[in-house]
């Protein structure tokens, strides 16, 4: 039994060493290449990850939250300036009340903690929530407002969290705002073009995402940034979000670097 245990420890040590070596090589490969300035992530698979390991769905969401903190560090390390993540859609509001309530408690807690996070202030990261925040509980709205207020003057990095968000709703909202401004004489109809329309979206004034990454093996964008993704590069991985590793992150960037972005030309 003791020999078997020692053998397993040796195997784990060898595996960890090989992983670190591969991670280092991937990091070296992407250095010097084009880095996406805006990365958008559809964080999918928390519940399936939990189910696979016999955990409660809430535990999967907690592990997903921890993974997002890791990914934030990886973005800082590689120089990605804008990170936009899909945390909670308007459709997610239709999930079981106990799951939604648990997520809301997690959001309220984490936004207050985010507002005090040393990394946020050290790297001057501007935090912003995009979506229909009026659909969220009051304590979540207050926590969001607190995090946004604490970081409103930062402009080195930008961290956007999509909560109660829907891409179609965002477009309809923008159209309504434009119609209102035309009626009020603030805008002339002939001024309306793609560039102006983008200014009415939640993600203004950030550039459209260069790379969109989705975990869990699903190959769709699920009503996320429908206007903004017109020319984004898409990358799908089979890994569930809580199991997303740094090598998966680096592989996505390497894939992005190997593509030619033609923008329809």
Key phrases:
265 residues; globular; Undecaprenyl pyrophosphate synthetase; alpha/beta
Describe, in short, the structure shown.
The protein is an alpha/beta fold.
Notes on the protein architecture:
By secondary structure, the protein is an alpha/beta fold. The protein has a domain at 36-166 and 207-257: Undecaprenyl pyrophosphate synthetase, CATH 3.40.1180. Helices cover 50% and strands 14% of the residues. The protein is built from nine helices and six strands, in the order αβααβααβαβααββα. A six-stranded parallel beta sheet has the order 3-4-2-1-5-6, sandwiched between helices. α6 links the parallel β3 (125-130) and β4. The model has no long low-confidence stretch (mean pLDDT 94).
What is the topology?
Layout: H1 2-30, E1 38-42, H2 46-52, H3 57-78, E2 82-89, H4 97-116, H5 118-122, E3 125-130, H6 138-151, E4 157-165, H7 167-183, H8 194-199, E5 211-214, E6 233-236, H9 246-257
Helix pairs in contact: 1-9, 2-3, 3-4, 4-6
Shape: globular
Order of helices and strands: HEHHEHHEHEHHEEH
Number of strands: 6
Gyration radius (Cα, Å) is 20 Å
The CATH level-2 architecture of the domain at 36-166 and 207-257 is identified as 3-Layer(aba) Sandwich
CATH class category name of the domain at 36-166 and 207-257: Alpha Beta
Strand fraction: 5-15%
Mean pLDDT: 94
Number of helical stretches of at least 4 residues: 9
- Give the distance, in angstroms, between the N- and C-terminal Cα atoms: 64 Å
The percent of residues in helical segments reads: 40-55%
């Amino acid at each position: 039994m003791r020999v078997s245990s020692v053998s397993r420890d040796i195997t784990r040590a060898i595996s960890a060493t090989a992983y670190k070596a591969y991670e280092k090589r991937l990091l070296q490969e992407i250095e010097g290449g084009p880095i996406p300035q805006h990365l958008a992530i559809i964080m999918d698979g928390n519940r399936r990850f939990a189910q696979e390991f016999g955990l409660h769905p809430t535990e999967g969401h907690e592990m997903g939250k921890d993974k997002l903190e890791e990914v934030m560090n990886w973005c800082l390390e590689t120089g990605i300036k804008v990170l936009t993540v899909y945390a909670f859609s308007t459709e997610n509001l239709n999930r079981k009340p106990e799951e939604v309530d648990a997520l809301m408690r997690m959001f309220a807690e984490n936004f207050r903690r985010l507002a005090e996070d040393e990394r946020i202030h050290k790297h001057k990261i501007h935090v912003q929530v995009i979506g229909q925040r009026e659909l969220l509980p009051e304590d979540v709205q207050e926590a969001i407002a607190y995090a946004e207020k604490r970081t409103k003057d930062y402009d080195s990095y930008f961290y956007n969290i999509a909560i109660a968000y829907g891409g179609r709703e965002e477009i309809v909202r923008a159209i309504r705002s434009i119609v209102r401004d035309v009626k009020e004489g603030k805008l002339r109809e002939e001024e309306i073009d793609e560039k102006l329309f983008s200014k009415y979206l939640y993600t203004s004034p950030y550039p459209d995402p260069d790379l969109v990454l989705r975990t869990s093996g699903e190959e769709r964008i699920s009503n996320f940034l429908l206007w903004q993704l017109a020319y984004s590069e898409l990358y799908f991985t089979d890994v569930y979000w809580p199991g997303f590793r740094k090598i998966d992150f680096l592989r996505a960037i390497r894939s992005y670097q190997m593509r030619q972005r033609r923008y329809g030309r």
